[in-house]
Amino acid sequence: TVLLCLSAPGGVSLVVPQPNINATVAQNILLSVEYSCRGVATIEWKHVSSWGTTKIVEWKSGNYVNISTVYKDRVTTFENGSIELLNVGMRDAGYYFITVTEEHGTNTYGTIIVNVYEIIYEDLHFVAVLFAFLAAVSAILICFMWLCNKSLHLFQKKTTHKLTASTTEEIELETIEC
Questions:
Q1: Residue 67's CB: how many other CB atoms inside 10 A?
Q2: Structure pTM?
């Protein structure tokens, strides 16, 4: 774990223990930070990606919490400045910026990079079903070929047996006529 410690001259400090987070779609992630300051702090989180910049949440320690409507049911805030994002999607990938502002106006900034990956269960499921289907069709074809082979052998035996009997009768008939 890499510790990123940022400190401003006014006495505000911020620790970002995990500056890079890898997540999969539908996972919950914790954007963990720890701040300290002498007075009351205002914490603000923003998300920046190729789709633009979105303010996620802003709150004053011990007072109000203002969560944007886009994140209303997906964000949990913690007193140490951390937030939890529920049910992440591909659009949640990007940079998360935290700003901690002390009541006297001193700011400290932190950044967390979030990468979100898709799980390709649907593709794996399709491949597994296709493989099972092909295996079943192969087994049926092998059984059909075995039955055809057995039937052919039985037919050849009967034909050979009939030919042998008729040839013997012809030979007997020929000897009697002489």
A1: 19
A2: 0.65
Helix (H, G, I), strand (E, B) or coil at 166: helix
Average pLDDT over residues 56-66: 88
- 76-117 pLDDT, tens digit per residue, is 999 999 999 999 999 999 999 999 999 888 899 999 999 999
In DSSP notation, 68-87 reads -GGGTTTEEE-TTS-EEE-S
Bridge pairing between strands 75-77 and 4-7: unpaired
| Alpha helices, H only, the chain | 121-177
DSSP state of 120: -
> Contact 102/6 with Cβ under 8 angstroms?
no
CA-to-CA distance for 62 and 41, rounded, in angstroms?
Answer: 9
Which is nearest to 86 in space by CA: 71, 99, 98, 101? Answer: 71
Using DSSP's 3-state secondary structure scheme, residue 68 falls into coil
- What's the average model confidence in pLDDT over 56-74? 90
Is 33 in a helix, a strand, or coil? Answer: coil
Distance CA 38, CA 15 (A): 16
